Amino acid sequence: MPNIKAAVKWARQTEKRSARNKDVTSRLKTLYKKGASGTTPASEVESALDKASSKGVIHKNKAARKKSRLAKALGNAAPSASAPKARKGGKTAIRKKR
Hints:
Elements: H1 5-37, H2 42-55, H3 60-77
Helix pairs in contact: 1-2, 1-3, 2-3
């Protein structure tokens, strides 16, 4: 037990924050899985990630990475008809003039 009164309060606050952060993190993981499978709209998942990053639960780069991977997963699952199809071969035929 801490000897300082303020330290007791700090310990209480840390417990509260940890519990809240754990709940939010767990919810984010579930939402992400549902979003990747297509049962939850991607906008809802992205909104939750943005909110968690703004509150400091997760890092902003982690939120961006998760959103990017979600979009990539959804893009691979259902490619749109209007999107141009990728050419085989990899490199383009355009070269620099010397």
